Amino acid sequence: MSPRSKVTRTDDTETQIKSSQETKSSDTEADTPSSGSSRPFPDPSRLFVADGGTLNTERKLQGSHAPRIRPPIPITPQVRAASRAHIVDSSPDELDMLAPARPATLRMRRKDHKTASVPPMPAISLALRAVYIGEWYAENPALELVCFSRHLSLMLGTTEQIKIAMRDVVNWMIGGESHHLFILVLKQTSTRIFSRLIPERNQTEGSLQICFLVNNDNAAQLAQWDALLRRVRSKDVRPAQLLTEAGTSSLLSSLQQSATHPILSLTAKGTTPMDSNNLLTGRSQSEESKPIQNSSNLQINAPTITELASPAAESSDASSNDECDTPRRSSRNRNETQGSNQPIFRYPDSGPFAVTILRSDLHRLDPEEFLNDTIIEFGLKYLCERIRERDPHLANQMHLFNSFFFEKMSEFRDRSKSYGQVRKWTKGVDIFSKKYVVVPINQHLHWYLAIIVNPAAILQERDQADIVRRSSRNSSDFRSAVNDANRTTPPKEIAQRPSGPTKITAGENRKDPPTEPESAYVLLLDSLGGTHGAVKTVLRDYLRFEAKDKHHVPPETDLKKLGDPIGVDVHVASQPNFCDCGLYLLHNFQCFFSDPQIYLHAALSQRRSAFSPDNVWRAGDMSQYRKDWQDLLNRLSASWRNPSDTNKT
Amino acid sequence: MADEATVPKPEAAEQLNIKVKDADGNEVFFKVKRTTKLSKLKRAYAERMGKPENSVRFIFDGQRIGDDDTADSLDMNDQDEIDAMIEQLGGW
Description:
Chain B: Pfam families: Rad60-SLD. The complex is a heterodimer of chains A (about 650) and B (about 90). Chain A is of the alpha/beta class and about 650 residues long. Chain A contains 26 helices and 15 strands. Chain B is α+β, with helices and mostly antiparallel strands and about 90 residues long.
């Protein structure tokens, strides 16, 4: 039988689709969330039309501005193509729902903008990711993002700071984990705009409120919002609620009272920070809807604009309407993806479950690009093999999960349901026989690493006293966890570490006998710092379920009584930019497993003031790291022959 | 290639029903031969779901399915389930 017929068979034999997975007719979005009618925009090209606009702009902005700028959300070829194609939003069916209730407050004119070739922007056109919000944002979770029908507003309390056209928003997670999302619903606001703003993964902080500015008596619409909300709840652990008109006004008035920070500093590339007084602030002013006076402060890098504008102009000249443009864009898209879909090598070269590296994956290692799961998985497997060559015993003590493990395990609030999804992931592996279980984590466009140490230690049921001790400790978790760690592990090795600036600070608990059995730890190695208590809990629950499922504990065991690993947010070196976290993940992995004992002690005996993570975690040599990996990939690619090519010849 | 023609075992002709499930709970069933490369399945799936092929990952029992893997080489059974995941990116 010919391969061709095989393909055909694969193609058309599938497909009963359970559930109403076809959301294209998304008026049916009122379906229950669980029915899986979820991908709001099943057709990516449509999605990206909607995003349109200035994507390339901020990409460039970010590229040349130093590390303080927030990184762009990675631009896929589709986005790129789409952003070339359109400056003016040409998908009116989805986005041009309704004029905003209030007139646009902050109108920006692009400087050096070729108005002749590019139609004027209807409203504010700073792409979300071009805005430098800076650390200020992270420190001020009170900043809200308010969604209107056609734009988002960054609000500080009730003061509108900046307005962003909806089509420029591809992702609402601009503030990391902790901001609040308010959706203010006008009468005809459609759920479709917001459905793609729902986070892919759990949000643990902040809240989401869907607020009706006016009473809505349209039952169908209410049902849609309700469905959206249920979807949020199924994905999201933050509180989410639907407010009626009365609730909305009281919420707004309480926000008004709690607005304390009048100033938001806002910078685009090459400008000095400007305060919000230069922007329009406050409701009263916003009513006037006048163009911003000194928009030059917010200038966008002129060459960038030109570069962006010309292809856009070209495409909008060629096709003033959507129908014309769509095939054009998709053909370009196809051309781009064809080359990038080319496998450049496979790792390992033989055997099942090999990672195939595509050319597009190689480009993930270009300067300032974000790493993807393929590179991370390859990197970890590659490093693991190097460990195996050096120290087979250590390699046998390790188990690597892939980066989707945590995504699956944290998918549902009901952990047993989440566990059900990964129950079979350890087929043939007893993770409790391992000393180190490595869990790469991708959350909110950020990579970091969790390492479970001594997982078997949780198999011991805790006695009552221990539970009490621990629960009292939970209140001050991290610090005391470290104390506890010091208590249980004699820190002698780390003292031997020659370069170690790590000193054990006055071992307050050394009197405790070092004979206590080893504890289980969840080490969290995050180059952006932060605390990850929730991650530890997820992994703890995984271990408990796994212990029961794989019969490591008697079936009648109360899982709550099983051991609780100690979570340690390790002070690894910080990444000096906003694009390298994937590399730091690999680096930290490499460091840790260069000598796990020493690094474990370093991690457990850390004190912020007592040592410099840069030294312990050897981050000094990171500048070449990205290039090293790229060179490695190129080397492996050069020596690899695609077996399917050889078959053909 | 010849892989299909040369398999003499009766079960080789057997087709498996494989369920592909994405993170949203959508399920798509495929009927595949044991010797069909699962990368073809992935391509068909990506096309059907309107996603770029290089952004889709197939995970079976926690492991990423390689391009040359087949149901046979992975020892898959009828009604087995593949997790379809979407590319993860991270930088900050």
